[in-house]
Design goal:
The protein is an alpha+beta fold. About 25% of the residues lie in helices and about 25% in strands. The protein is built from six helices and 15 strands. About 40% of the residues are buried.
């Protein structure tokens, strides 16, 4: 039978319809991924030696062991937003507009063209997390920056245009409605119950454990109770933190470890599916408030929204979160 579940943090409903013939193995994808790619591509602008193809380099994290860069941050050559202009609104009849103020950066995650996060070492992933955090903190110091979104697109269905492993950062001068709505729902919950909805979710998942797929001293990884897509994973800090900028140095290695484990498990069990991941964090002026809690959300691209989802805003998930978690956990024991 189908079931409708509510996301406690957002009040969004999700329909779970296992009768639509989607067992965990039905989501396995079969493609070459990065296995047949060369370590260096002379036509790739992100590969070392092709710096003449890049825009300005904003930052490099050195690799002390190999005497070259480990991660590199560049300005996006085709940015969605730029730092020219401002956040002043203009009125055109009944309409409001503003210039495309912001910033759009690319984080090149490795010098190797064919070394994706799932194939990296935890130390290498730690360098990516360090780069994320440094850029986040620096960009949020800019006066007109209202929100900084860090995200990663993996695979063509997720929007990747270049194969070389990379993430992106976009800074905006406004807070998008979806983020403001999520913050407002957390505020309403806090006003009613006096504590953070995400902390309550975290406490229950720690106790229930049916959807947990990874854990260490600082983070819990789990398939959410009302997962909107098959094999969705949330990685949430156990310590209450509203902003990704509050991540402590000692927690960075734990985040790198659990992110690496989660992506490696998806790659192993589902044959390297396309996915997006996003760091959901507080907007600038709400970064210290007690009702907000940042988390990293992984959304595999295993299904395509159809007419009902587009028209109603309600996702239909043809798999069950508890079965997804059980299937992913089998990887650690070697079970099929």
């Amino acid at each position: 039978m189908s079931e409708i579940r509510q996301n406690k943090a957002t009040k969004q409903w999700v329909i779970f319809a296992p009768a639509r013939n989607k067992r965990p193995r039905d989501f396995q994808q079969f493609h070459n991924g990065s296995k047949d790619l060369p370590a260096f591509d002379p036509a790739c602008p992100f590969c070392p030696g092709n710096e003449h193809l890049l825009s300005a380099i904003a930052m490099e994290l050195p690799n002390q062991a190999q005497n070259h860069w480990q991660t590199r941050v560049i300005l996006n050559k085709f940015p969605a937003l730029t730092s020219e202009g401002n956040t002043h609104r203009s009125v055109q009849g009944p309409y409001v507009a503003m210039s495309g103020y912001g910033r759009h950066e690319v984080i090149i995650e490795s010098p190797s063209h064919n070394r994706d996060i799932a194939q990296m070492s935890t130390i290498e992933v730690g360098g990516i997390i360090e780069t994320y955090h440094k850029r986040y903190v620096d960009l949020m110091k800019v006066h007109q920056s209202m929100m900084t979104l860090i995200f990663r697109n993996h695979g063509a269905r997720a929007g990747t245009s270049l194969i070389h492993p990379h993430s992106q950062i976009i800074v905006t001068g406004v807070v998008p409605h979806q983020i403001r709505w999520r913050e407002d729902e957390a505020q309403r919950y806090f006003d009613e119950w006096g504590h953070c909805v995400y902390c309550d979710i975290l406490a229950f998942e720690l106790q229930d454990r049916r959807r947990v797929v990874g854990e260490n001293s600082s983070f819990l990884a789990f398939v959410p109770f009302a997962a909107e897509v098959p094999f969705e994973i949330w990685i949430m800090p156990k310590q209450h933190q509203a902003s990704f900028g509050h991540l402590l140095d000692g927690e960075k290695s734990d985040l790198a470890l659990i992110l690496h484990q989660s992506l490696a498990r998806l790659a192993s069990k589902l044959h390297d599916p396309d996915y997006n991941y996003i760091i959901n964090t507080a907007a600038r002026y709400r970064a210290g408030e007690p009702q907000l809690h940042w988390y990293l959300q992984i959304r595999p691209r295993l299904t395509t929204p159809a007419g009902f989802e587009v028209g109603s805003g309600i996702n239909i998930n043809p798999s069950i979160p508890e079965e997804n978690a059980e299937f992913l956990n089998a990887a650690s024991t070697g079970n099929p």
